[in-house]
Amino acid sequence: MEKWSLMTITVLLGLIVRWMVSFGSYSGAGKPPMYGDYEAQRHWQEVTYNLPIKQWYFNTSDNNLQYWGLDYPPLTAYHSLLCAYVAKLINPDWIALHTSRGYESQPHKLFMRATVLIADLLVYIPAVILYCCYLKETSTKKKIASALCILLYPGLILIDYGHFQYNSVSLGFALWGVLSLSYDWDLLGSLAFCLAINYKQMELYHSLPFFCYLLGKCFQKGLTGKGLVLLIKIAFTVVASFAICWLPFCTEVEQILQVLRRLFPIDRGLFEDKVANIWCSLNVLIKIKNVMSPQTQLKLSFAFTFLTLLPACIKLTLQPSLRGFKFALISCALSFFLFSFQVHEKSILLVSIPVCLMLNEIPLMSTWFLLVSTFSLLPLLLKDGLLLAYVVTTLAFLTVCETSFSIFEKTSEEDLQLKSFSLSIRGYIPSFKAFPKIIKSLFIVSVTLMGILTLMSATLTPPQKLPDLFPVSVSVVSCLHFLFFLMYFNAVVLWDSRNGRNQKKIH
Fold it and tell me: Does the pTM of the predicted model rise above 0.85?
């Protein structure tokens, strides 16, 4: 009973922080003619309510795709429609066709913020609480601490409740998938992840770990017996899930193709804005878009993404384990973020949520990564007027993590999960024993650098010849951090002998 009382308090704290952030500004507030993501979500409610399904993804006189055209999968559209029905009951002007464009008011802002909170309460927060409550070999105190730290992760709060999006829905479905697989509910886990993909296509970042883990389980059971039966059941679940989600669009082939074209807009190019991935960072030195054709850029990004995620996927298929699965979610999503085509800065959340699941196991590295991931969003948050919310939530998160896990004391090779890796290095360099000192020093330098760049970005005016100096600096520094973390998480995955033999639930 005490555990659930503390969990209730934890959830309330998470909700209070979310609602406090929601009082601030949002993307595109008072900035016509395009406004921002807040208007995009409102516009999708307008489109889905007033137009027939067959027109949702097509450019028509009533649906100008250049003005925040729908570019997410069907479940997002259905969610927009559901919100639109509620909006219609409260104030029809909010979703009136054409005339509601750019609608802004305090009651409408309250309504939109409430839709995010309700979605969070229904999908994401329950998954977090159940995951933490049933962590094995973990004290009640650590379970509560894990839940509190995950719910206070500033990146997701600032984007959903500040900038304005519904990332907690797709991430929540993915988390339900992880939770289900932890209890061998493979079909339910497959269904949950299909819902995640059909809400936001960026969940493809997590698709290979789900696929490889389930395929590896089928191999273990034997593809001539129980493994084959499980594979058929999983395949049927996936096909049925997609069929139901896409059923209204299956009337014509062109409908399906148009939705796919909207979901994967290759014409937009390799990257947009100042995202903290390798292509945007290299663009400082080499103007990639000028020296390579779009087709070459696409092939190059695919090759680098595939090669960097391949080792973790191969090991997960050959040695499927829950521990390996969760680490593969991190390393594969990070590979996609760093090297894939058409990456947005908010996609770092797809790496961050799996990292949140490892706070209990590797608190220092997880906290560090989550701080960097939030920092990488700084240019976007400054544009939205969310500097104060960013500073307060980030400092609160760091304080809670340090208080809960004593992260600065967790720097031994065992705490960093690098014992096997360091033993391999000592085979070539016998005197190598510097991991704890190196990591602690790097962490301090990193946090100091992020603090300085935050202060400079918020207070200084860049030179006229270099108007993007601070956003680019944030992106490059964050990218270098992410490359370091990619190597770190892959080292843990590939050198961790426990992956192959540890099958304890939610380890």
Answer: yes
